[in-house]
């Protein structure tokens, strides 16, 4: 229950992080 519960909030939080990284590199 511990690992699966933390895995749900992890994907949504990791998505915005990597998205901002490539955005900064483009400009």
Can you walk through the features of this model?
By secondary structure, this protein is mainly alpha-helical. Helix content is 78%, strand content 0%. The chain is built from three helices and no strands. It is rod-shaped, with a radius of gyration of 12 Å.
Short key terms for the protein model shown above:
3 helices; rod-shaped; mainly alpha; 27 residues
Radius of gyration: 12 Å
Percentage of β-strand residues: under 5%
By secondary-structure content and strand pairing, the structural class works out as mainly alpha
Helix content range: over 70%
Unreliable residue runs: none
The average pLDDT score comes to 54
Subunit arrangement of the protein: single chain
Note the total helix count: 3
Say how many strands there are.
0
Shape: rod-shaped
N-to-C CA distance? 42 Å
Order of helices and strands: HHH
Biggest sheet overview: none
Region (Disordered): 1-27
Blueprint (SSEs and pairs):
Elements: H1 2-7, H2 10-14, H3 16-25
Question: TL;DR?
Answer:
This protein has 27 residues and is an all-alpha fold.
């Amino acid at each position: 229950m511990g690992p699966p519960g933390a895995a749900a909030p992890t994907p949504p939080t990791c998505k915005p992080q990597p998205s901002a990284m490539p955005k900064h590199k483009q400009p």
